[in-house]
Each structure stands twice: as C-alpha cells, then as structure tokens.
Design goal:
Distance between the termini: 42 Å
Number of strands: 0
Number of helices: 8
CATH superfamily of the largest domain: MFS general substrate transporter like domains
CATH topology of the largest domain: Growth Hormone, Chain: A
Helix content: over 70%
Structural class: mainly alpha
C-alpha cells in the first residue's frame, strides 16, 4: 500500500514540476524560479568556500617545494644534480595517474567518506614532509602528495557535478581556481 502512495506522490511531484517547466527545461513559474535561485545561492555559500579553500591549500602545497629549495632544502637534505627535478616530476606523474581511479571510486565510496579521508591522508603526508631527511623520503612524500591531491581534485569536480546543473557547473569549477575574482563585473552568477 505504501508503494502505491509513494508512486502517486512521485507522479504528483513530477506533474507539478512538469507544469512549471517548458519544453526546453526552463522553469516558467516565477515562484519555482525564485526557490531555485535561493537554493543555488545557498549551495554557493556552503559548498564553494570549502572547495575553494581545499584547492587553494592544494595549490600552495604543490608549489611549496620550489620555495623550500630556495630556502636551503637542497643543502639540508643533500640533494645533488637533478634530484630536485625528479622529486618535482614524480609528483605530477602520480597526480595524473590518481585522477581516473579516484573518479571511479568516489562514486562507489560516497563523497561524505571519500573526500574527508583523502583530505586527512593528504594532511598527514603534508605533515610528514617536515620530517624529510634524504632524497628517498622526499620522493616518497612527493609520490603520496601527488596521489592524494590528484584524488582530491577529481573528487571535488564530480562532487560539484552532483549538486549543480550543467549550465551552472562551469562557474562553480572556476570557483575551485579562484577565477571568479577575474570575471567581468557585468556577468552575474545567476
């Protein structure tokens, strides 16, 4: 009996939605359009800042090795020749390799588990870079950082795909890179 009621409720909700949208999917009802705008604005206030912060920290962490090298890291851990270049390059290899599997696993493992786990593991590895004393440990931390940061960006992008419509998604992915600051003032978000 409850499945009949739920089926009827689903049909009624769909009919209400169908009446408020036109053939091309644009909402005709001004009340529904206002509610949708309010919902998107609320999502932007709660989701975008967290994603932007994670991406900013990721970007800073990615380029941190260059700053550390200028401050004497190469002498402190006795890097010679192309050791620093190898450590930098190995990061990007694992960053690229981690994106595809994480995009598959994030759908199966759920975002509420996968994103915090990846962020926590990435933070632990970042903390571990402070205890690097030789080339081998530097390479291991760079490999792990590349893996976890690659997982993070792919997961955040798919996470945004689940919350926003296709026409809203480009602006929200631009939020990840902070490009909204550079957008022209006459372009509105909604």
């Amino acid at each position: 009996m409850s499945s009949v009621v739920s089926d009827e409720k689903v049909k009624a909700d769909f009919q209400e939605f169908a009446q408020s949208t036109s053939e091309n999917g644009i909402i005709d009802d001004p009340v529904a359009r206002a509610r949708e705008k309010a919902l998107v604005r609320k999502l932007d206030l709660y989701i975008a800042p967290v994603m932007m912060m994670l991406q900013l920290i990721s970007y800073l962490d990615r380029g941190n090795i260059g700053f550390a090298a200028t401050q004497g890291m190469t002498k402190d851990i006795h890097l010679h020749g192309t050791n620093l270049n190898t450590a930098v390059s190995v990061f990007y290899i694992f960053y690229i390799l981690a994106e595809m599997p994480s995009a598959i696993f994030v759908k199966r493992l759920q975002f509420n588990r996968f994103l915090p786990a990846i962020t926590f593991a990435w933070g632990i590895v970042c903390l571990g870079t402070g205890f690097v004393h030789n080339f081998g440990s530097l390479v291991v931390t760079r490999i792990l950082l590349g893996f976890f940061e690659g997982c993070l960006f792919a997961s955040m992008t798919i996470f945004l795909c689940n919350w926003y419509k296709r026409e809203e998604l480009a602006v929200r992915v631009a939020f990840l890179f902070g490009e909204f600051i550079l957008r022209p003032r006459n372009v509105s978000l909604r």
